[in-house]
Amino acid sequence: MYPQHSNPTRPDRVACAPYNFIPLPEKIVVVDPKTLPGHDSYDPDRYTGYIECELITKSPLYTRCALNPDFFRQWGETPLHELPEEKKKEKAQFFHIDDAYHPVIPGSSLRGMVRSLVEIVSYGKVQWVAGEPLVFRAVGDTSSLGRLYRSRFMKEMSKDHFSFLIQAGYLVKKRGQWFIVPAQDVKGTTFGRIELNDIPKGLQKWSGCPNAEIIYAELEPVKAHLHNKEKHPVKLNYAKVKRASNKPEQGLQEMILVKSGSMPNKHLGFVFALPDNNKPRIPIPEEMVLAYRNQVTQFQESLLGKDGALRENQPVFYLLENNELLFFGHTMMFRLPYPNSVKDFIPEPLRFSPDPDLAEAIFGFTPDEQRKNGYAGRVFFTDAKFVAARDGVFYSDEPLTPKVLAAPKPTCFQHYLVQDRDNGHDPDNKATLAHYGTPAPSEVVIRGHKLYWHKGNVDPTEIVNNKDVSESQLTLIRPVKPETTFNFRIYFENLADVELGALLWVLNVPENCCHKIGMGKPLGMGAVKIKPSLFVTSRKERYSRLFADSHEWHEATKKIDDFRKFTRVFEDYMLEQLKEYIGESKIFTDIPRIKMLLRMLQWPGHPKEWIRYMEIEGSRGNEYRNRPVLPDPLHIAGCNSFSSGESQKKKKDLRGKEKISRPAVSSGDPGGGTTMAAAFERARKRKETR
Description:
Blueprint: E1 19-22, E2 47-57, H1 69-75, H2 85-91, E3 104-105, H3 107-121, E4 133-136, H4 144-153, E5 154-158, E6 161-164, E7 167-174, E8 177-182, E9 191-195, E10 204-206, E11 209-219, E12 223-227, E13 234-245, E14 253-258, E15 268-272, E16 282-283, H5 286-295, H6 298-304, E17 315-321, E18 324-329, E19 336-341, H7 348-351, H8 358-363, E20 364-365, E21 375-376, E22 379-381, E23 384-389, H9 413-416, E24 449-452, E25 484-495, H10 497-507, E26 515-516, E27 527-537, H11 539-544, E28 557-560, H12 564-577, H13 579-582, H14 592-601, E29 650-652, E30 658-660, H15 676-689
Parallel strand pairs: 6-13, 9-13
Antiparallel strand pairs: 1-24, 2-25, 2-27, 3-23, 4-19, 5-6, 7-8, 7-17, 8-16, 9-15, 10-11, 11-13, 11-14, 12-13, 14-15, 17-18, 20-21, 22-25, 23-25, 26-27, 27-28, 29-30
Helix pairs in contact: 3-10, 10-12
């Protein structure tokens, strides 16, 4: 059994987010490739036809329109905020083919949504995960991650006495490859510290670098300096600048002043010795350059430019381990790569098999290192075309500027990684949390498939940007309204009953569930209700007659009014495949993993306070500071996967994993759930009284 997530039990350790995770499968379910049909004939024992789908939007929906060739030639590389006003509106249009007033949902988007759900419910491979290592910075973090981070940068001389392991150097590029030229040794070090108040005026720029200037300075010898005197005194070994000038003077040597940015209470800057061209250059591997580019922040861009420190003669700090370059950056305590990539946190049996899983069998797969031959899919999605709207098509007459949604932050490990008490990673104890430096996958794995919660009725204030942010971060959209109807078809060929059942199962979710598609999912956009109808074609009958009586093509297609026989075949197949993990369960939707999926699809969803982004700055302070842990979808605030009669009992779930059932609240609780929401309220009031 792989590590399993333990939920926090203390209210102050519970995080919230607009997303959650469907756990990794206990196993992947594969099919025998020899049973896959060819594409040159119709199998009489398999099914061919189409699924007619009515799609009704339940919240604002937006998919961006592709640019036409003329627009792209003239404006394709121009940032949105620099476009003329009319061109901005054109770029904000909803996807369409010919008529902008008849929106279209691309078939590729529908296919991606359906395939993702098929992969989840059929226990498919978890393979669409990045292989590049993430980077992190945890200078003052008091968790286990902070201890790991500081141990890489500093050597402990004695209790609360440290020396730095980092060194100073300069970036150069030769024949397309980046190198670091080490700085000269000056009194046993390559860099020193200078009081900000002692920096002379009128310094000249160094080699075109925006954060580097030429300074003339004298260093004291390396010695211990006391820091953080009031809170937790520590001694740090470094050389300090004794005196400095903006011009050459007796006893001073030319050095480089390096600015790393401002911070509260910061009083020391850095000076680097000049490059030492007699020392061997340190090559920077291409994958490390890529990892560096991927971690460049907006602040780094504002200080250094869009490529960060990747500039000729740019001063950088770097770290060597066993004479190998570990990483580099423009600050002394720069971001470090984790020893593992995200992919390493998925057990290999769950991400690789030479045999196809059910999703690959249905949707096809391409050749790879393990499989020389690919296989074409047997399902084909049309675009979803506009049919009708209850009260106008578009959400607003003019394009909207939505709230800025940053890229996912998988480095928030307390959300993205399993915290398993049995492996010593207690979600109630910040100091023991598993992180990306924890041995994987023996002690920790990723949480699984990330999905966004529905947020019910969404009003414009929840979508439209109301903060003062840079124009370059903003975009424009023109979504369609809720209760807008589209139609699309999924054509299929030679599907086995279990394959057709899997497809119908994810399309025909319970009445109180909706799918999600398009942009703005964290804002509550993209909720849609799909109503499928099944039509099966008899190929033998069709090709036995060319025309029907009306002189039209003889389709030989009939509607199947009750397609539950297919979904039951799929459910029974999965129960049989998973019986060693689910015990006596006879109902597919009783499997905890499937329960979590249906909870994530539940419409209209939970109170928005339970599924909001936590704040870094605001009335609640920094809610990420103590790294609270995100519970599983069945145990978010106010939710409970157990009945009210099981309060204060420990119960084994179907995986055999111990869970804690919390006492239920009155029937008026919208979550049907626990005292967790009340506990949050009590904690809030205690904070206010303090």
